[in-house]
Design goal:
Rossmann fold, six-stranded mixed sheet, six-stranded parallel sheet, binds 2'-monophosphoadenosine-5'-diphosphate, NADP, oxidoreductase, Shikimate_DH_fam, EC 1.1.1.25
Length: about 280
């Protein structure tokens, strides 16, 4: 590609209408005064391989990947980063001159950076983390917590087998806790994370007893619609430091933007507003 062409990036998913990534990257492109575009693209699973071959030829330097393609892109990539491989999914692709692409996963990075920015006193090494849920998002969170030096990660999930599989995959610092004992697990943790979709607008509420939440704990939710979930409201009322899920979405976008457009962007209040707006 000649240096005069305008770099293009975007997000592929099916459906794609709900993605906030175009607003997010669009805000950075505009405020940094960069030439470039970020576009949402609906790609049917049957057309994934073909789309990934065509996009570099059209001037794309990379894309974000969302449901349902996050696992399938690993098979098509020429290189998969260690963290994407451990998580078993990618969210950020970097296209190369020869038409191949690298697959990375920045969800865990986004998770940790959100905590570092919004709960700066949280010390990963100080105590165990309690995770609610054992799906794809939980996997990214677990990888990032282990990497950050959390001594123990406890996982509780409605479907016990999924929590046990996750624990098995990550060795003896990760343990599965019966869903019936989730409440006790929450009370014992330094960090509590909801990675389930419960609490999201139009979804049921989390039905776990939260009486054990107390001052000194950090509580975060990956749900960001609404920003203040019932879990976070309750945690705040019980004296915990709370961090909403929007920051994870914003921070996970940073490494891709930097690779594609050459500048490391900042996560600001204005970015939050632009992304939600
Ligand atoms: P993601 O990739 O976003 O994590 P997922 O893999 O579908 O999505 O996982 C969703 C998580 O929310 C799972 O932990 C799921 O629990 P199960 O493994 O038992 O399905 C959890 N979840 C969804 N609806 C739930 C509900 N009504 N009660 C309890 N947990 C629920």
């Amino acid at each position: 590609m000649s240096h005069e062409s305008i770099p293009l990036a975007g997000v592929i998913g099916f459906p794609i209408i709900h993605s906030r990534s175009p607003q997010l990257h669009g805000h950075w492109l505009k405020t940094l005064g960069l030439r470039g575009h970020y576009v949402p693209m609906e790609v049917h699973p049957d057309n994934l391989a073909e789309a990934l071959q065509a996009l570099p030829k059209l001037g794309f330097v990379g894309v974000n990947v969302t449901m349902p393609h996050k696992e399938a892109v690993l098979e098509l990539a020429s290189h998969v980063t260690d963290r994407a491989s451990l998580i078993g999914a990618a969210n950020t692709l970097i296209f190369r001159e020869d038409g191949t692409f690298h697959a990375d996963n920045t969800d865990g990075y986004g998770f940790i950076e959100n905590l570092r920015q919004n709960a700066p006193d949280w010390d990963p090494q100080v105590g165990p983390a309690a995770i609610l849920g054992a799906g794809g998002a939980a996997r990214a969170v677990v990888v990032s917590l282990l990497d950050a030096g959390v001594p123990e990660v406890m996982i509780s999930n409605r479907t016990q087998l999924r929590a046990e599989r996750l624990a098995q995959d990550f060795g003896n610092r990760v343990t599965a806790v019966d869903w019936g004992h989730a409440s006790r697990m929450i009370g014992e943790a330094a960090l509590v994370v909801n990675t389930t979709s419960l609490g999201m607008a139009d979804k049921p509420e989390l039905k776990v007893n939260l009486d054990g939440l107390h001052a000194g704990q950090v509580v975060t939710d990956i749900v960001y619609n609404p920003l203040k979930t019932k879990l976070l409201a309750r945690a705040e009322a019980q004296g915990c430091v709370t961090v909403d899920g929007l920051g994870m979405l914003l921070h996970q976008a940073v490494p891709g933007f930097e690779r594609w457009f050459g500048i490391k962007p900042k996560v600001t209040e204005a970015l939050r507003d632009a992304t939600l707006g």
